[in-house]
Amino acid sequence: MNANLQAIVEACSRGSEEDSLNFRQVLGMLADAGVESYYADFRRSAKTYYLPDGESIEVQANDPDVAIASAFDVGHVEAAVRQSQAGTHTYRSFCEKVMAAGCSGYLVSLLGRRVVYFGRTAETHVEHFPNK
Fold first, then answer.
1. What SS3 state is found at 43?
2. Residue 39 in contact with residue 107, Cβ under 8 Å?
3. Cα gap 3→45, rounded to integer Å
4. Coil, strand or helix: which one is 4?
5. Mind giving me the DSSP string for 62-92?
6. N- to C-terminal Cα distance for the chain?
7. SS3 of 54, please?
8. Phi first, then psi: what are they for 85, rounded to 5°?
9. What is the CATH number of the domain that holds 46?
10. Domain range spanning residue 120?
11. Going residue by residue through the chain (132 aa), what tens digit of pLDDT does each one get?
12. In terms of DSSP H, where are the helices of 18-46?
């Protein structure tokens, strides 16, 4: 595994958590590094970054102090996404809001330009990347 690539995904993960990088910046850095998708697993407090050759890199994530609700509330997930897009709250706050709305994780596809949020019972909500 390329040590430079490891450093890039770690910087993206920490940059999100510390609010020093926004979603667009993270996507740009990951795309430039050749990452095609990543999975944020709230249950394990981990992010896994996937490369086209089948390799992956896992990074531990900060553990928000919120339990994942048993019911998946699409409306609340959408509201948290819109607030995040508007820059009105931190990444940690975003994670706490979607977890409270029953989101157990999300998959970001750089290739598909979308994010799939899902709950404990595999309910999903898909958000396409903004065109701005």
1. coil
2. yes
3. 22
4. helix
5. ---S-PPPSS--HHHHHHHHHHHHHT-S-HH
6. 34
7. coil
8. -65, -35
9. 3.30.1810.10
10. 3-128
11. 588 999 999 999 999 999 999 889 999 999 999 999 999 999 999 999 999 999 999 999 987 889 999 999 999 999 999 998 888 888 999 999 999 999 999 999 999 999 999 999 999 999 998 775
12. 23-33
- Total tally of structural domains belonging to the chain: 1
N residues, the chain: 132
Is 124:77 a contact under the CB 8 Å cutoff? Answer: no
> Sheet containing 46-50: which strands, arranged edge to edge?
56-60, 46-50, 37-41, 103-109, 114-119, 124-128
Q: Which helix (H) or strand (E) holds 94?
A: helix 91-100
Report which residue type is found at 103.
Answer: C
Q: Which two tokens stand for residue 74?
A: 């699409």
**Which candidate, 25, 14, 8, 10, places its Cα nearest to that of 87?**
25
On whether the pTM is more than 0.70, the answer is yes
